[in-house]
């Protein structure tokens, strides 16, 4: 999440946005200022370093990286020297990257890695799981295809008729799309997207008043967003925008984003008081925040 300030100092334009595909702030702790994140219980278990033998030589160190042994595991990392005053950690698709001042010794750097090993292994595990989801087959736009809706899969049914229409059967979890026989795939996508956006507007419109009442705040308006980097945003004058793609997810995740944005009407920041406000109306916010962060864009249908 990031605070955006326009060039004009008009306080009504101040907004806070809930990022979705970018890393969480807690993903880059510093040794001098440890990030206040709760370490997951499940740890990433890298492939144990192969024992030295004639028939099975050790795995070569990737180019540009260093290797250190942590227990029975070999951990590869990239080291970048900089003018910063502290040791920084970052996990990306290339693994672990350490940024450290030029005057810090290699021993001190590896001691810091040992101190943060639980965090490092947990984040590597999250990254590995996210990469695995990218390899899952994409949705097929055809009769019988599966579409994520409110955290569940519904089945597409395509009917070739001259009359256009969309019908959802909640009992059978089937979404029937009526299209002309010569309709193309993009027409099907447009029809499904239109239905999902209508559902998003309906569901968000029902959930917002519930949490606004719990919090004792009033928002001025809400609208759907098609942002590629945020799940939601809130301005100081009470204008809320929610990403329509949230309709793919289970209701608790939608409620978390709604509670998050409404809480900004009390606290236009991300201070401890803000998170306490979120927790007061949505106690399970930590689990919801993590679940939402774990959803990579590649797991969602491409329209």
From TrEMBL:
**Origin superkingdom:** Bacteria
* InterPro entries found in the cross-reference section: UTP_pyrophosphatase-like, YgjP-like_metallopeptidase
Q: Gene3D superfamilies, alphabetically?
A: Metalloproteases ('zincins'), catalytic domain
> Can you give the residue ranges of the YgjP-like metallopeptidase domain?
86-295
The membrane spanning regions, by residue number, are: none
Q: For the region Disordered, what residue ranges are annotated?
A: 27-65
Pfam family membership, one: YgjP-like
Which PANTHER family does the protein's record reference? UNCHARACTERIZED PROTEIN YGJP, UTP PYROPHOSPHATASE
Output this protein's name: YgjP-like metallopeptidase domain-containing protein
User: What is the organism of origin for this protein?
Assistant: Oxalicibacterium solurbis
Lineage in the entry? Bacteria, Pseudomonadati, Pseudomonadota, Betaproteobacteria, Burkholderiales
């Amino acid at each position: 999440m990031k605070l955006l300030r326009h060039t004009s100092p008009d306080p009504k334009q101040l907004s806070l946005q809930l990022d979705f595909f970018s890393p969480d702030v807690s993903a880059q702790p510093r040794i001098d200022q440890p990030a206040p994140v709760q370490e997951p219980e499940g740890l990433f278990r890298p492939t144990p370093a192969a024992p030295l033998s004639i028939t099975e030589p050790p795995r070569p160190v990737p180019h540009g990286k260093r290797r250190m042994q942590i227990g029975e595991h070999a951990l590869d990392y990239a080291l970048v020297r900089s003018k910063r005053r502290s040791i920084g950690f970052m996990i990306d698709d290339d693994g672990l990257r350490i940024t450290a001042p030029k005057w810090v010794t290699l021993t001190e750097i590896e001691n810091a890695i040992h101190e943060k090993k639980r965090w490092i292994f947990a984040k590597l595990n999250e990254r590995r799981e996210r990469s695995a989801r990218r390899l899952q087959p994409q949705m097929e736009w055809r009769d019988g295809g599966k579409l994520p809706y409110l955290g569940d899969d519904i089945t597409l049914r395509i009917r070739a008729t001259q009359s256009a229409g969309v019908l959802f059967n909640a009992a059978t979890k089937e979404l029937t799309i009526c299209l002309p026989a010569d309709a193309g795939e993009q027409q099907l996508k447009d029809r499904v997207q239109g239905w999902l956006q209508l559902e998003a507007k309906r569901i968000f419109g029902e959930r917002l008043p519930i949490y606004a009442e719990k919090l004792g705040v009033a928002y001025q308006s809400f609208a759907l967003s098609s942002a590629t980097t945020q799940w939601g945003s809130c301005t100081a004058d009470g204008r809320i925008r929610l990403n329509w793609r949230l309709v793919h997810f289970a209701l608790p995740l939608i409620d978390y984003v709604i509670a998050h944005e409404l809480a900004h009407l009390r606290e236009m920041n991300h201070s401890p008081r803000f998170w306490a406000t979120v927790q007061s109306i949505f106690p399970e916010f930590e689990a919801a925040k993590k679940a939402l962060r774990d959803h990579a864009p590649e797991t969602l249908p491409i329209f």
